[in-house]
Write the structure tokens for this entry.
Amino acid sequence: MTTAPPREPQQDRSRATRARLLEAAIACLAELGWTASTVAVVAERAGVSRGAAQHHFPTREALFTAALEHVSQVRASEMKRELAEFAGSSPDTAAVVDLVMNLFTGPLFRAALALWVAAAAEPQLREQMIPLEARIGREIHRTVVELLGVDERQPGVRETVQATLDLARGLGLANLLTDDGPRRARITQQWARILDQAVR
């Protein structure tokens, strides 16, 4: 007599469904933008029913805010993984600047940008995103300070680290329509030299 394989626990299935929805939401935002990324479109891409999507995320804003938080966790994990590779030694400034620039290119940044633009016109989404973005910004800033091994109590260090993040965000915007890689590489090299002189 054969026995049926054990069923996946409900909690695990629920977690897997939620993860699929978040990944699909990020992909849809990056590829289609806010307007075309409806709950139905995300649910179809995730391979779940619209009802299942609404069970996890009752509103569109809840789905995409959770997706942004997921994006931030992925980005933070990437930075921590990079940080772990430098265990026992400090990365040079150019390596840190490269890491920061890479955070602001690619599908994760595109997804976050689509949400920022939508939030500018949608008060309900904006209310959810402002505190989330503030927290994400603090986490990324703190990680960059740790990577650089600098002391923010020194005059100008905090502002210079923040300028690095702002520069990276701007270069990420410039990369949206065309591949801006060669120009970005030259700017990144020059900024690494300026940053090194400013904080070391």
Remarks:
- The mean pLDDT is 86.
